[in-house]
Write a structure and sequence with these properties.
The active site is at residues 167, 241, 346. This protein is of the alpha+beta class. It is built from eight helices and 20 strands.
Length: 350
């Protein structure tokens, strides 16, 4: 286990924010995670559970302990007699998620192709319920292994127990900072059933003369689409899509559609009933609204909105987390003023 005092977090967040933490603990096994949990439960010092930092905005130095898994590739493949088409990949929490997707495609295990090139690590996929191009990690996750910080005991959670929703899970809310994830198991299939009807996937395949793509061709096309729309964090600091796409009621949708007939939208396959009785039926692209507010390609000091995708906020170099947060709040204000919708960050802000 690595134990570093006054550690830099510059390489632990894809936004490229140069901040420090008082202490950095990197665990390389579930046993070490248990040891860390015992240490954390015996102190009142704050702590932050961190993966690859691809969905994080650090607004300043962290005054406590940062806990992170060792970044290494570790995948165990197994089958179950009662599931002949299924193949299961048990992955170490610190494994880069896209390496898992690449590994699966090469071995002929299917279902993760649409999640190609999403940044971050396996542990974060179970917290954030990462998704893209009509697919979500929750469709694949069968089990999450973790260590409970208060008791230092190992626990396992089924998919249902995690209560997954759009970029949501209990790990982001009720269970926030209560568990250190150590491994995630995904169920893939030996049968390839491509998902083509989201975004420009089918069109991009057709331009290449491909009507019945292989899994490898699907992966390469999705990688190309993402690279054309999203900046490389190694070149320009960012956390991918910064805002979630908001969901609205049918009444609100009709009001917006009357004002903006060209507005793109996605109708939810199943209406979502809120605790207050409100029923949400349509998802509206936050990027489209940000673009209509004139923000795409614009900057506010050392931060800005990516010129090819308005959902992405970028660090032009040397920006602080506070500067990114100020841009976030300005965009939220402008979208609310124009459309009457409050958009919420997808990234975790610390």
């Amino acid at each position: 286990m690595k134990d570093i005092e006054n550690a830099s977090l510059l390489t632990h967040n894809t936004f490229g924010i140069d901040v420090h933490c008082r202490r950095l603990l990197e665990f390389s096994s579930a046993d070490e995670a248990c040891q860390i949990a015992r240490d954390l439960s015996g102190t009142e010092d704050p702590y932050l559970l961190l993966g690859g930092g691809s969905n994080l905005l650090l607004t300043g130095d962290y005054p406590g302990t940062v806990v992170t898994p060792e970044n290494r590739f570790e995948v165990t493949v197994f089958s179950r007699p009662d599931d002949p088409d299924g193949v299961f990949l048990r992955c170490w929490a610190g494994t880069t998620f896209d390496e898992v997707v690449d590994y699966a495609v090469q071995l002929g295990y299917h279902g993760a192709e649409n999640l190609s090139l999403i940044p971050g690590e396996v542990g974060a996929s179970a917290i954030q319920n990462i998704g893209a191009y009509g697919a979500e990690a929750s469709e694949l996750i069968t089990e999450v292994e973790a260590v409970e910080i208060s008791t230092a005991r190992r626990v396992r959670f089924s998919n249902a127990a995690c209560r997954y929703g759009y970029r949501q899970s209990k790990f982001k809310h009720e269970w926030r900072d209560h568990y250190v994830i150590t491994a995630v198991t995904y169920r893939l299939t030996r049968t390839f059933t491509p998902k083509l009807d989201y975004g420009s996937i089918r069109r991009e395949l057709e331009t290449k003369g491909i009507t019945e793509p292989t899994a490898s061709q699907m992966r390469q096309v999705i990688i190309a689409i993402r690279r054309a729309k999203l900046p490389d964090p190694q070149v320009m600091g960012n956390a991918g899509s910064f805002f979630m796409n908001p969901m609205v009621t049918e009444e609100k949708f009709k009001q917006l559609q009357a004002l903006y007939p060209d507005m793109p939208f996605f109708r939810l396959p199943v209406p979502l009933r809120q605790s207050d009785g409100t029923v949400l039926t349509v998802k509206v692209p936050a990027g489209w609204m940000i673009d209509r507010c004139g923000w795409r390609g614009k900057s506010l000091g050392r931060v800005g909105v990516y010129d090819k995708q308005a959902l992405v906020l970028v660090n032009h170099g040397g920006a602080t987390g506070a500067e990114v947060l100020a841009l976030c709040k300005t965009i939220q204000h402008d979208v609310d003023a124009k459309f009457g919708i409050l958009i919420h960050p997808e990234v975790n802000i610390k």
